[in-house]
Specification:
- 2 copies of one chain form a homodimer.
- With 378 residues, chain A is of the alpha+beta class.
- Chain A has 6 helices and 28 strands.
- The first copy, chain A, has a 9-stranded antiparallel beta sheet. An 8-stranded antiparallel beta sheet of chain A has the order 8-2-3-4-19-18-17-12. A 5-stranded antiparallel beta sheet of chain A has the order 7-1-9-10-11.
- In chain A, α3 runs antiparallel to α4 and α5 runs antiparallel to α6.
- The model of chain A has no long low-confidence stretch (mean pLDDT 93).
- The interface between A and B is medium-sized, with 34 and 34 residues.
- β11 (111-116) of chain A pairs antiparallel with β23 of chain B.
- Chains A, B: Belongs to the beta sliding clamp family.
- Chains A, B: It is found in: Cytoplasm.
- Chains A, B: Residues 137-251 form the DNA polymerase III beta sliding clamp central domain.
- Chains A, B: Residues 254-376 form the DNA polymerase III beta sliding clamp C-terminal domain.
């Protein structure tokens, strides 16, 4: 195997596949990055067996030459050293060449590294996914859906299924739901041009976080294919493959109250910074609980009290307030997460009493829903 | 105590004094920040008893009003909460008021915090230092001296005196020396307008690192006063007080070889990035050892070899090379630290054989000296 490649291209491909590489994988060879040279371009692969990422660099693209003097072949290089080497090489191009003894020479300017490679035949084959049954979604939109839900997955391994995001596609609507059983986040978007339907697909939150980091905001689309136990996200030069979580995702629709007793509308940023301030005294000891109290003249009081440290109160003006008086306590962290996920200037919050879950939505958009269970205080 | 203060001023003062506050100080009240309001302005104090920092905010400065409605008094507030509160308050001004029960009310816009304060009389008195015997040095220059030496202090507590930087002032020359017994860094600067002399003053490296963070690059001067066991750095609105280390600093002058067998001159950045690359394969296992070998035609080879991972070689061209042939191994980390500290384009390195310490200096400046002990390799 031999080729000469533009270093910037190689750096960004290596960064992408590194997102899947673990320092302690199940199979030792997965500590490496697989490099495959074909006449038409170079493919890098990284995997921890849960997530696998392939990044492709075409020989030529839009008239620019990315790779030259390609001699086909493949090799696996230690991920612990290869990325730093590529990043710190002195020149704009890098020559990579392997010999039959699996020695790999990396040259750039006057710098020459000779690394011990591993046999690419020992690197596990990635499952091939039929991509006939697939649908497309703009990258920006997918990133939005991930950001608006994935923070609500559980970090506890007691109910592993809750560490994933539940994906459903039916009637041309794609829906993401995440819950850790104390709060829930959901987002829907319409998908045209597909007859595909699936439900009870659960993608590990960790996979979606990595995917979100790799996908570059753009108006291009990502193609999504689902099998029994794998999901594939494919863009022009990237394949991102994740295993799915086994098990049944709980029915969440019934958690969402249908009738409300108190409803308020507030400016998102104003509520967010008020809650943020009120949480300053709470810190770890009391799980960051703050209290919301409705008052006369559309005022809302946010307060928190930590006997040893002190207390804080602040009033904000609601844009709208209707229904019963209310005094409710909740985790400021959950509220801050939910408000940050709603990218609208105004939110509507609907309560059904101090002990029932409440729902936060943008004022004029039903596709985003955030639900939080209150905290009982005495 | 009561005053209304510009929030930006308060934030930067709080950040400064926080550099001295420890979360586990010897005396519990030192987890707090002392606030003292006088008719002429506000003084904040933070201390961990090794380092104490006072930051002053004058009532008025250059015609701008920083503090209004001052009622004199003092209080101590928990450093765990106060800085975050100040940083996140909604308005440009903050009102701070304490009552006889040590309750402190902090108001900004509609936000109101009531914190439990502590009696300022219980806060230890800082030692007063006679500032008659003092000298001045531009802030930029002092920061340079710290950066060029402090990285070489020892981090091991086995010889506590080596965790500090040795300061000497004699014949109108101020000299900083630091060594961890494997390498040494020194810097001299001329000081005019003083008859002051001192030697065997050792300031903890940690104190100088904090001082360097607080001092803002400028052409103003800092006034330095020394007593038996304290050193005071004083700028217009800041007092930075550090204890000195007890004990005798070793005699270091005799470590510096007077005669050389091989001398090279190289471009600093070129050598730095070459050593940096050669150290990539070394990582932890072999303490980052790289080898330098002189070759024909003024070439220098930098190489490193880690049997399990691979090897790296790179040649750079010396600007000048004279004396005996040489093959020498040393810690790449020490070399990188030393080269970064020398802020000149070209360095001269003088060797006295493979087993003797070698000396790195800027080509045309004798005031900076870096010394490194080689590593024995077989």
């Amino acid at each position: 195997m031999k080729f000469i490649i533009q270093r910037e291209q190689l750096i960004s491909s290596v960064q992408n596949v590194m997102k899947a590489v673990s320092s302690r994988p199940v199979i030792p060879i997965l500590t490496g990055i697989k490099i495959e040279a074909k006449e038409h371009g170079i493919t890098l692969t990284g995997s921890d067996s849960d997530v696998s990422i392939e990044s492709y660099i075409p020989r030529e693209e839009d008239g620019n030459v990315n790779v030259e003097q390609i001699e086909e072949g493949n090799i696996v290089l230690q991920a612990k050293y290869f990325p730093d080497i590529v990043r710190k090489l002195p020149e704009k191009t890098v020559e990579i060449e392997s010999d039959p003894n699996l020695k790999v020479t990396i040259r750039s300017g006057k710098a020459e590294f000779i690394l011990n490679g591993q046999d690419a035949d020992e690197y596990p084959q990635l499952p091939t996914i039929q991509t006939d049954d697939s649908f497309e979604i703009p990258i920006d939109l997918l990133k939005g859906m991930i950001k608006q839900t994935v923070f609500a997955v559980s970090t506890m391994e007691t109910r592993p299924i809750l560490t994933g995001v539940n994906l459903n596609l039916s009637n041309n609507v794609l829906k993401f739901v995440a819950t850790d059983s104390h709060r829930l986040a959901s987002r829907e978007v319409p998908i045209s041009n597909t007859n595909l339907e699936f439900k009870n697909i659960v993608v590990p939150g960790k996979s979606l976080n990595e995917l979100n980091k790799i996908l570059v905001d753009s108006e291009e689309t990502v193609e999504i294919s689902v099998t029994n136990n794998q999901i594939l996200f494919r863009t022009k030069y990237l394949n991102f493959l994740s295993r799915l979580l086994d098990g049944n995702y709980p029915e969440t629709a019934r958690l969402i109250p249908e009738q409300y007793k108190t409803q308020i509308q507030v400016k998102t940023k104003e509520l967010l910074s008020t809650i943020d301030r009120a949480s300053l005294l709470a810190k770890e000891e009391r799980n960051n609980v703050v209290r919301l109290t409705t008052q006369e003249s559309q005022l809302i009081e946010i307060s928190s009290n930590s006997p040893e440290i002190g207390n804080v109160t602040e009033e904000i003006m609601a844009q709208l307030m209707e229904g019963e008086e209310l005094k409710i306590s909740f985790s400021s962290k959950y509220m801050i997460d939910a408000l940050k996920a709603i990218e609208y200037d105004e939110v509507s919050i609907a309560f059904t009493g101090a002990m029932r879950p409440f729902v936060i939505r943008p004022v004029n958009d039903d596709s985003i829903l955030q639900l939080i269970l209150p905290v009982r205080t005495y």
